[in-house]
Amino acid sequence: MKVTISHIKADIGSLPGHSTVFKPVVDEVEGYVKEHGSSLLKSYYISHVGDDIQITMIHTRGTDDEEVHRLAWEAFKAGTVVAKKYGLYGAGQDLLKDSFSGNVKGMGPGVAEMEINARPSEPFIVFMMDKTEPGAFNLPIFRMFGDPFNTPGLVIDPNMHEGFIFEIWDIIEGKKIKLATPENTYDILGLIGSKSRYVIKRVYTKKTHEKLPDENVAVISTDKLSLIAGEYVGKDDPAGVVRIQSGLPAAGEVLEAFAHPYLVSGWMRGSFNGPLMPVGMKDAKMTRFDGPPRVVALGFVYKDGALSGPVDMFDDPAFDGARRTAVEIADYLRRMGPFEPHRLPEDDMEYTSLPRVLERHKSKFEPIEDTPKGKKVKVATTDVD
Ligand code: 13P
Ligand code: 13P
Ligand code: MG
Ligand code: MG
Ligand code: MG
Ligand code: MG
Fold it and tell me: Residue 385: which pLDDT band, with cuts at 50, 70 and 90?
């Protein structure tokens, strides 16, 4: 039986800065979905991480469904009215367009959707991040589906042994490519290591891909707010849905990808590298330097239209070590203040407010005589070691 998982999220205001959602706003969003979604949805779950409200919806209308997208958009609009009433900071922040036009994509909210042939047992985990960008998923998704040191199932389980297909999007050029593991592993890594440009959008199994090319096992929201708005309007704060077990990575294998807090871009003013800290819902608020960036994992099982769960997977002492390391990394990096590589490199700062600050000095730069003008070499013409 075909079923669609649609996860749509947005920041529509928070308190006191970009720290956390406000209960009356979450309640309004939930109330709207409950009241207006009963004929559209089989089930839904409303959650949040940091200042982003997250709507997980189960239905049979397929991906990009106008009515499901409209429901989420209007729920966020209704929540924004309440956010404004309380004077929340950044009320309506991610709703970048005035009116809904058929699809929530390109309008600000992040979308991760997949239409699947539900298995007899259909467990999946929704990962939700705050204070970072879609490329933050590259490393952990690769580890889950492509790295046998993270996922021994790739070695041990005959159903996983042949590898997976990764759909990678170039979000700057608007192009995509499919590459498979293990044969294209190094090419995949060559692309997705550039995480502000190449992002993993979906993962497919090889076995089903020929017969069912749309059947995917992981999907990540790749919506980039700065590309929509043309300027910094907050970070994208991505979410992803990952199916697990029976020929796919086990729950523990997908969680294991977050057991080390690697660096992601975002954090304060969307302008800094910082550790991604796995937390339970009780710690899903942003404090130190508006972070550090956090990821929450909610585990569900789907059956016959109903969702069981969620289980708050990182609310567990087994991830205390990752959290401790994240705090140590934060201590270390913060001492660098506004310097790279804590602060993001110049290219990534293009969409922040820094260019406006530096603009006033632009005309004051004087030429330096007899100095070779520095040009970045784009292509190496000879092999270099
Ligand atoms: P169980 O035998 O407990 O179901 O475990 C199987 C498994 O997938 C562990 O990762
Ligand atoms: P959000 O995208 O989570 O609102 O973050 C904005 C910001 O600038 C935090 O410092
Ligand atoms: Mg915000
Ligand atoms: Mg946010
Ligand atoms: Mg944001
Ligand atoms: Mg068992």
Answer: low
348 is in an annotated binding site: no
Q: What percentage of residues in the chain have a pLDDT greater than 90? A: 88
Query: For the chain, how long is the longest CA-to-CA vector?
Result: 74
Calculate Rg over the CA atoms of the chain.
21
Distance of CA 159 to the CA centre of its chain: 27
Q: Which domains are delineated in the chain?
A: 1-117 (3.30.70), 119-361 (no CATH)
Ligand 1 close to Cβ of residue 252 (< 6 A): yes
Closest residue by CA, ligand 1 atom 9: 250
Report which bound ligand comes closest to the CA of 290.
Answer: 2
Confidence (pLDDT) at 384: 64
Mean pLDDT of the chain: 95
What would the DSSP string read from start to end of 318-364? GGHHHHHHHHHHHHHHHTTTT-TTTBPPHHHHTTSSHHHHHHTTGGG
Residue 377 burial (CB count, 10 A): 6
* Mean pLDDT of the 45-64 span: 98
In angstroms, the CA 135 to CA 195 distance is 4
Which pLDDT does position 378 carry in this prediction? 64
